[in-house]
Write a structure and sequence with these properties.
Number of helices: 9
Distance between the termini: 10 Å
Shape: globular
Structural class: alpha/beta
Length: 267
């Protein structure tokens, strides 16, 4: 594959494209600009909601972002949601009821497009007082479709809690994790970064065999498998979660070492 070049570049943000100080290096921006100047789209694929994408838009400008682990497609230039696949109220109610029965100290929050709601006892780690962030009761949160349901436990180990959530959810929705916390991210059934990227790539007339995707956490696994199975490149960061390493085709440097830029330059 020494002469292989991507027709589309997809990258996770936190722990991948972004350094640990939440910035993108000038070298990485320059490398991405070089590919875009050659007509190769750069697509962000992240667990982040749209409301956390303003700063990256200032860095990368135009393009599409796959947000909320595939549930939301965001046009960065207009900052308009162009597609959304939501979790429906019946699933939300049944999942939250069963999770709380199985583990009473589970607390919930939801993403609605540019809005975020959380139970009073749920402890947001970021933007606690940001616009669009507010407290709500669980019945209020599950009464309408949401882009993503978040379930958090403050005491259980991450893997134990995520496994519990997966057991409760079954095939009613998609469960993943992208942090060191006991935080499960729940999307509509079949919704992953892979499904979001597939939709964006198809819009460009590009298949997974011509995609390179970068990531570091389990919420990147579906995208890695989608690309790798077709002959594309699934590139894990040097510090990536072992489950992601297991499905990667390549490994690059860490995010602080500009691993994304280094791999792209090698192509």
């Amino acid at each position: 594959m020494s002469d292989w070049k991507p027709r589309l570049i997809a990258s996770d943000m936190d722990g991948t494209l972004l350094r640990w100080d939440d910035t993108v290096s000038e070298a990485t921006v320059a490398e991405l600009d070089r590919w875009r100047d050659d007509g190769v789209p750069v697509v962000l694929a992240t667990g982040r909601p749209p409301r956390w994408m303003y700063r990256i838009r200032d860095v990368l400008g135009a393009g599409t972002a796959v947000c909320c682990n595939g549930a939301v497609l965001l046009d960065l230039e207009s900052f308009r949601i162009v597609h959304e696949e939501a979790l429906q109220p019946d699933v939300l109610e049944s999942v939250t009821t069963e999770l709380r029965r199985r583990q009473p100290d589970t607390w919930f929050a939801v993403e609605y497009g540019l809005e975020f709601r959380h139970e009073p006892i749920y402890k947001p780690r970021w933007d606690v007082d940001a616009p669009g962030v507010a407290e709500a009761t669980l019945p209020e949160m599950v009464a309408q479709p949401v882009a993503k349901l978040l379930a958090r436990h403050e005491e259980l180990p991450r893997d134990e809690f995520v496994a519990l959530v997966e057991d409760v959810v079954g095939d009613r929705a998609t469960v993943t994790n992208s942090s060191s916390d006991a935080l499960a991210e729940i999307s509509a059934a079949g919704v992953t970064k892979a499904s979001g990227l597939a939709r964006v790539a198809a819009g460009h007339g590009i298949g997974p065999e011509d995609v390179v995707v970068f990531g570091d956490m389990p919420n990147d696994i579906a995208a890695f498998e989608w690309v790798a199975a077709a002959g594309g490149r699934a590139v894990a960061m040097a510090h990536a979660h072992p489950d992601l390493m297991a499905v990667a085709t390549d490994v690059t440097g860490t995010n602080d070492d500009d691993g994304v830029a280094a791999f792209l330059a090698s192509l």
